[in-house]
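Internal tracking record. Fields below are filled automatically when a chain is submitted to the structure queue. Please do not edit lines marked as system-generated. If the sequence contains nonstandard residues, flag them in the REMARKS field before resubmitting.
Queue: standard
Priority: normal
Entity type: single polypeptide chain
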Amino acid sequence: MTIVMDAAALNAFLETEFPQVAGDYIVDALSEDGLVARLRVGQGHLRPGGTVSGPSMFALADLAVYCAILSRIGPIGLAVTTNASIDFMRKPVAGVDLLAECRVLKLGRVLAVADVLIRSEGMTEPVARCSMTYSIPPKQG
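SYSTEM-GENERATED OUTPUT FOLLOWS
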């Protein structure tokens, strides 16, 4: 799959189109094989007990898939999640950023399917696994 938006372009797109997540959620790396997104874990992402909340981890996975798809189709803001499944496997390490490694498994005209593994930075064991399907809007014109 050809890359049409690099990590810098994706982060600029997020700052413009999704300022509510830009800064906390960023694209760290991008290659032909996949994308790595980061959650800069802060107080707003924690739940009682000092662990990262499920909604914050889900948002990281969703952002990783969204950006992985946009990296291949360009800045089409209306690509949307149509299905998602997430397994929370273990408690994230406290005070450490989370990294989401995303692989696009299928990129069609209408649907894209991707998998994400989320890890605490510096750890090998995943804290969550997510599978998502996105709907891609028809090309205009």
